[in-house]
Every structure is written in structure tokens, then in C-alpha cells.
Amino acid sequence: MSYFKSKITAFVLATTGLLAFKAETAFALRIDLDRPGPNEFVRDLAGMISSANEAEIKKIAGAVLKDKATPILVV
């Protein structure tokens, strides 16, 4: 009897987990942003990044783009 209880418990837990995961993805928000321009590395729509930090991010992202051909965008 305990074998069947453990199987049923495992099934119920797996089903509950799957349903919880599906419900969370169903309520995910979609945020649409405009495509960044060339060499635009910072898109601070909330105004949370100081101008000094923005300049540092642009400097680092520009160097990474030049050295590794990998664009970085901070949103």
C-alpha cells in the first residue's frame, strides 16, 4: 500500500508543479522596447543610472564590442 501512496504523492506533486509553472508563464508580462541604435549601449527609461555610470557603461561596452564583436545593451 505504501508503494501506491508514494506513486500517487509523486504524481500529485509533479502535476501541481507543472500546473504552477504553466500558470506563471501564462501571466508573464511582455515589454516592447524600440531597437537600439548603432553604438547605443544604455537605454535608461527609468532614469536610474547616473551620467557618470552611463559613461562608464558606454566605455566598457564599446571596448567589448570592438575587441570581441559582442554588443552589450543595458536596459
Automatic annotation (TrEMBL):
Protein name (Swiss-Prot/TrEMBL): TPM domain-containing protein
Organism: marine metagenome
